[in-house]
Amino acid sequence: MSSDDAVVGTAPAAAAGEFALGGELVIHRMGFGAMQLPGPGVWGPPKDRARAVGVVRRAVELGVNHIDTSDYYGPYVANEIIREALHPYDDDLILVTKVGALRTPEKAWPAALKPEQLRRAVYDNLRGLGRDHLDVVNLRIVEEGGGLGPEDSIAEPFGALAELREQGLIRHLGVSNVTAGQLAEARGIAPVVCVQNEYNVLRRRDEDIVRTCAEAGIAFMPFFPLGTFTLQHEKDVATDTKVPQQVPLEAQAIHAVARRRGATPYQVALAWLLQHSANICCIPGTSSADHLEENVAAAALRLTEVDVKELDALHGGAA
Ligand SMILES: NC(=O)c1ccc[n+]([C@@H]2O[C@H](COP(=O)([O-])OP(=O)(O)OC[C@H]3O[C@@H](n4cnc5c(N)ncnc54)[C@H](OP(=O)(O)O)[C@@H]3O)[C@@H](O)[C@H]2O)c1
């Protein structure tokens, strides 16, 4: 533990409150997503590695004790930057990683859901992060490249990770990009402590899953929480993969609430998530220290009932 222990309790990220993953790994509900740390397109090294390392260190200084990552960010780059920034890790730092895809030289993200591929990915994450076990591993369901669709069983890949958990390489399991049926199937195989699906103030297709998770004590960690990217778009024909498209989080109500609260629209989007359900934990991604400060400060932003009502009324991207 660092000498800043006394400060952590009052650190900005702590203002969002806590959630105990699996009833035991206590995280501040405002975390950090590492996907923006590598170079453009989540590929290769960042232009300024020292800056990326500084962003990760600053996140922890601000009280973030939960970082979401994956070995396929870069590939390898995000984990290497986290390790350079924070190893040896504080006891209270929770690293959540994910497996289920790989990167090709064309910068595509095909599925890698076969048991042997998952085993290799777990070992790659252990090596990349410099750990002897992983706190939480999410199984990311990927359709591209011969993967699994929403109607498919995830029993084989989730079962493979459950075996690695039994062997002590993984402490807890999560699932990502799943349907309600796939979540139920996974829970029948091994305990699930978190779900990571696309969700934000404008895109709430998974409202039922958020509720199911809340009832079961499972964390819901939305990806694209700022809505600046979306997977709802056409496929890249050349690589047969979905490439996230930049879609600004635009809605009059968000801007109106932001003006009233003296906050930014990004902070309003994060504060809405935190107030929407007590099991939602945020992992906004950024490569910028300024954006990081802004995002973490949203942990302390309290929306009024009127604000929430206006934001709740936004459905499916209606402005
Ligand atoms: N399981 C999955 O399939 C999956 C998929 C996608 C992501 N994830 C995880 O979820 C995390 C969050 O998703 P994400 O990073 O893709 O999307 P996001 O958090 O919704 O948005 C990130 C984008 O917003 C920009 N941004 C961040 N804070 C900002 C601010 N205060 N003002 C203006 N722009 C801001 C970032 O650019 P700058 O770098 O310039 O700030 C970046 O372009 C990822 O980091 C990753 O860990 C998981």
TrEMBL record:
Sequence ranges assigned to domain NADP-dependent oxidoreductase in this UniProt record: 29-314
Q: Which CDD domains match?
A: AKR_AKR13B1
Task: Report the GO molecular function annotations.
Answer: oxidoreductase activity
- The highest taxon in the source lineage is Bacteria
What Gene Ontology terms describe where this protein resides (cellular component)? cytoplasm
InterPro entries, per this entry?
AKR (IPR020471), Aldo-Keto_reductase (IPR050791), NAD(P)_OxRdtase_dom_sf (IPR036812), NADP_OxRdtase_dom (IPR023210)
Keyword annotations from UniProtKB, A to Z: Oxidoreductase
Q: What PANTHER family has UniProt attached to this entry?
A: AFLATOXIN B1 ALDEHYDE REDUCTASE (PTHR43625), ALDO-KETO REDUCTASE YAKC [NADP(+)] (PTHR43625:SF40)
Protein name in UniProt: Putative aldo/keto reductase
UniProt source species: Kitasatospora setae (strain ATCC 33774 / DSM 43861 / JCM 3304 / KCC A-0304 / NBRC 14216 / KM-6054) (Streptomyces setae)
